UniProtKB/TrEMBL annotation, chain A:
The keyword Transport applies. Residues 75-280 form the ABC transmembrane type-1 domain. SUPFAM superfamilies: MetI-like. Its main location: membrane. This is Phosphate transport system permease protein PstA. GO terms for biological process: phosphate ion transmembrane transport. It is found in: Cell membrane. Pfam families: BPD_transp_1. It is a multi-pass membrane protein. GO terms for molecular function: phosphate transmembrane transporter activity. It comes from Streptosporangium sandarakinum. Part of the binding-protein-dependent transport system for phosphate; probably responsible for the translocation of the substrate across the membrane.
Automatic annotation (TrEMBL), chain B:
InterPro entries: AAA+_ATPase, ABC_transporter-like_ATP-bd, ABC_transporter-like_CS, P-loop_NTPase, PstB-like. GO terms for biological process: phosphate ion transmembrane transport. PROSITE patterns: ABC_TRANSPORTER_1, ABC_TRANSPORTER_2. It comes from Streptosporangium sandarakinum. This is Phosphate transport system ATP-binding protein.
Amino acid sequence: MTTHTIRRVSAARRLKDRLVQTLVYLAFAVAVIPLISVLWLVIKNGLARFDLDFLTHSMRGIGARDVGGGAYHAILGTLEQVLLASLISVPIGLLTAIYLVEYGRGGRLSRAISFFVDVMTGIPSVVAGLFVLAFWVLALGMPFSGFAGALALSILMMPTVVRSTEEMLLLVPNDLREASYALGVPKWRTIVKVVLPTAFTGIVTGVMLAIARVAGETAPLMLTVFFTDSINSDPFSGPQMGLPLYVFDQARRPTDIAIDRAWTGALTLILIVMLLNLVARLIAWWRSPARGR
Amino acid sequence: MSQQIQVSGLDAYYGRHKAIEDISMTIEPNTITAFIGPSGCGKSTFLRTLNRMHEVIPGARVEGKVLLDGEDLYGPGVEPVSVRRMIGMVFQRPNPFPTMSIYENVAAGLRLNGRRSKSEVDGIVETSLKGANLWNEVKDRLGKPGAGLSGGQQQRLCIARAIAVRPEVLLMDEPCSALDPISTLAIEDLMAELKSKFTIIIVTHNMQQAARVSDRTAFFNLAGQGQPGRVIEMDDTSRIFTNPSQKATEDYITGRFG
């Protein structure tokens, strides 16, 4: 009489289970294969020239068929440009996110800012480069420089920093803000001493992702820092180099030696981004509240 | 010395919705007052109007007067921050700051309000933790995160944090509802001790608790769904629980509704 009986899993069910399982694993493999093959290719081809010479020398006076030469000028340029871009975009991005979450509260201004941040996220990187070229270099008559490149990169970084910081601030429980207010702590101090430290780990991760994103940008640099084969440690005057530009420049040269340099340049770029990520993880771990437990 | 609180004709709103209406009462210094009543009748809202925490919620506002020792907390030019230093608050769920150690949590109110000497802060942290009956349990691990304590310990940590800034009045919004009976007992004992230094107001859903700890009890209720909450009756606790003057109060405390 009962309608419910204990049944064995039918063959059809088991078959379906297997099928879906296979599909899921397959999708995973398809997603990972390009990633691993890119890493593998870059490491395999890049190791050939990955030596001290490469890391400490520029391309000054290296002829088309000469072996040797390095990317020191490009590494220096990338580090300076990314640092400057971060110095510009991280404070602005952080403050914007704090306004949106803590003060704007869905008002008209904050909705407008939100909209424009979304629009900025979608800006193609070459447009950011063109904007700086048109505004900074051509209209204001400033020279090509590492700083102009940093300006273009900061345009690309800012929306990412705002969005990720906003998400992290929204995750901070309101209970903590109220607990702080109830102690007679003013709002700004609550934000500085309670809200930001609580969201710190997530904010650092978001900033690192933004840095990793812009560190590999080529198009905006081409239009703003120009090219050079020499070391220029001053980002405020004269053409500078960047690693993505270096890779682009070497890869289009017709000799194998140049191609090898391009691979090594790519490897160096990946290593720099990974190193930055590692540093961020360390900072996050060191500041994390769970550490003392 | 603690001070008297006088509330007169107080209304509180969330946007257009009137949550409580025409509340007037006097709360004497160094007493424990309990607010009881069904959920949604505005006990917590009223509690939050007493230290200007109500207005922290977007769209919330207050009309009426709250006098602390004769001075209107809602008077022109009164800074909410200074009100909250005088009138501390303990919340329903324990909410220690997760990034801070036990020591830093207790010192938070002092530190966040400006510089003080290390020895002075050390002393206040110790007396506050002793005052919250937590010192013996945590004295060897003051540097560990406050979030690592048990729920009952966390709540006592929050009490220590609130009394460290030396308020006149301590507001407690269902401080024991997330705690087990033993932790609840610890906090009730603590309230009896704190009474000598502070005026305590507690919101509770536990009528035995109200009967055990409080000197005076106010019964809140609302006329119907969507209507503002009001104080139906306020009297000595012994009287409210044995011989209430209102039928609604009697029905509520004997469990016939609510």
